[in-house]
Amino acid sequence: MNKIEDIAAQTGAGQTGGKSAKPGRRGRPVGDREAKRKELLRAGIKVIADLGYAGASLRKVAKEAGHTTGAITYYFEDKEAMVRAIIEHMFDEFDEMLELGDEVADMRKRYQRWIELNSDSDAWLASFQLLARARHEPAFAAIYQQRYQNYRDRLAEIIVKQQAAGVVRDDIPADMLADNLSAIGDGWMMLLPIEPERFAPKRVEALIDSITALLAPIR
Q1: Which of 2, 45, 163, 216 shows a CA-CA span of 20 to 30 A to 31?
Q2: What is the pLDDT of residues 89-128, one digit of tens each?
Q3: With pLDDT > 70 as the criterion, what percentage of the chain qualifies?
Q4: pLDDT recorded at residue 63
Q5: What is the pTM of this model?
Q6: Distance of CA 135 to the CA centre of its chain
Q7: Is the dihedral of CA 96, 23, 87, 122 positive or negative?
Q8: Is the dihedral of CA 118, 54, 138, 134 positive or negative?
Q9: In the chain, what are the domains?
Q10: Burial class (CB in 10 A: 0-12, 13-18, 19+), 116
Q11: What whole-number distance in Å separates Cα of residue 23 and Cα of residue 76?
């Protein structure tokens, strides 16, 4: 077991549903706990997008969300725990795209949803801040590694079904196709906020059509 895998085992990264380990409780929040937790995660994304990883703190996230620092420590015992939860939260949204359906036509919905997610400048900025930080934080890297692998594995399962049905080319292994489709999405994510003109609605449709053509069975 390498260092990243060891940390993944210790932190519980990549467990079913992508949920983080339960944080220590330091008070009792009022109202819908899950809704408040998501609100704090969104505030954390906003603060990291605006101030960077180094500039973010639980106090600043609490202020952004309109809560006390004590309220945020109910959910996240420290900054690192909050960041781990933010990364997991981002991947949870990615995983939801895989539930849109197993048909080839459903791929269009996935890429359209991908465009919508990455049109959010705060999430885009925060994701790159955290990805860069993961190079120096093995605990963060372990989450990225495991959750990306989980995503590609699930996508490969969908492609295997499509290949068996004869609607996707089978001259390339499903796991290789899943890796390439993921890379295309990542490439779009990097440039969408910088070159929005390349991702106008009609051009997005044309881009998705081209991916469908590349996946079509070889006749």
Answers
A1: 45
A2: 999 988 888 888 788 778 888 888 888 877 767 888 899 8
A3: 85
A4: 95
A5: 0.78
A6: 17
A7: positive
A8: positive
A9: 3-215 (1.10.357.10)
A10: exposed
A11: 6
Contact between 188 and 118 under an 8 Å Cβ cutoff? The reply is: yes
* Residue with the two structure tokens 């991916």: 211
Provide the token pair at 202.
Answer: 């009609």
Tokens at residue 123, please? Answer: 């999430």
| Residue whose tokens read 């609605």 | 201
- Short-list 155, 169, 151, 173, CA closest to 101: 155
SS3 at position 52: helix
CA distances from 130 to 36, 50, 57, 146 (A): 22, 13, 14, 15
Taking each helix axis as running N to C, give the angle between helix 201-215 and helix 104-118, from 0 to 180 degrees, rounded to the nearest 10: 140
pLDDT digits (tens, 9 = 90+) for 23-51: 444 445 555 888 999 999 999 999 999 99
